Amino acid sequence: MQRFAVVMAGGGGTRFWPLSRSSSPKQFLNLSGNDILINETIDRISKVIPKKNIFIVTNINQKEMIEKVLDEEIDRNNIIYEPIGRNTAACILYAALKIKKIHEDGIMCVFPSDHYIKDNEGFAEVINTCIEIAEKHDKLITIGINPTFPSTGYGYIKFDIDSSDKYEKKAYEVLEFVEKPSFDRAKAYIKSGNYLWNSGMFVWKIDTIIQNFNRFLPRIYNRFYSVYEYLWTDQEFEKIGEIYPSLQDISIDYGIMERADEVVVVPGDFGWNDVGSWDSLGAIFPPDDDGNIVKALHVGIDTRDCIIYGNNRLIATINVSDVIIAETEDAVLVCAKNRAQDVKKIVEILKERKLDKFI
Questions:
Q1: Predicted confidence (pLDDT) per residue in 2-14, tens digit
Q2: What backbone phi and psi angles, to 5 degrees, belong to 303?
Q3: Please, what sign has the CA dihedral across residues 321, 323, 329, 330?
Q4: 159 DSSP β-pair partners
Q5: What residue spans define the domains of the chain?
Q6: CATH number given to 3-273
Q7: Strands 107-112 and 79-82, bridge-based pairing
């Protein structure tokens, strides 16, 4: 079967404010020093799936940016623009129907655009395994990451440890998807040996995921099929714009994966990190002798275990620890490291106060 990739690139990355903005969200940032995250994602995927079969789903507000910075080998006709954000379920069905209309069926691999992965060869091996299982067993497949510490920032996947014989010992049947746990519960998950981190990456046959939309999310399914004839025509965006406001704002996890029967997980161990917030930069940059991660012009005295990210100005610190300092041309963030997940709340306050130029 033909292989296709769908890269979800419509998010705002608000937990990386003030570096991530609505005009240049996280997936368009160069955090590693090599390339922007979305292009690193495309390069990684292209080891398994040809670039001509890679589709990007993003928001129409990011059209100018994505066409400017996206890998030049990606067909611009493969960029799918959502008129407004409606979470991951809607964007996945939209992409599945676009691919189906031209290619009928095939294997569809779904990836976030803004994750960081160290071992690209290991990643490719896992994706090939998922594709093999999707073709042979016709399952909905998710990729789980072998946990390396009791994270409270990730969701978990509980799996049936005795079910691997059905899948050549390469996959397990999923028993339960678990929300972000407390620290004690996360420790218990890791000790049990049958929990994985939820990576948000999926593999399935196109027809299989569409059938599951029909079963579990029939309102979204029916709304899309009401405009199916207009896909790949000049009227597509107009017709899509008419249905999008009425679509359920729901994730693929809640809408389908947690409810479907035929879900399996393939474990992965390829240096994955979702780089979801400032405190995850340690996955990309090693700390110095004082535990600081510094990407700035910085002078410090008694400064330990901090994250310091700057643009052009000198950042000087004295007697601080466990703090995030992020500076751009028009804004400065100072945040306790253990509150990194709350940075998105600052963006919500800026919206409420109509300080749009900072969003």
A1: 999 999 998 888 8
A2: -115, 120
A3: negative
A4: 174
A5: 3-273, 278-358
A6: 3.90.550.10
A7: unpaired
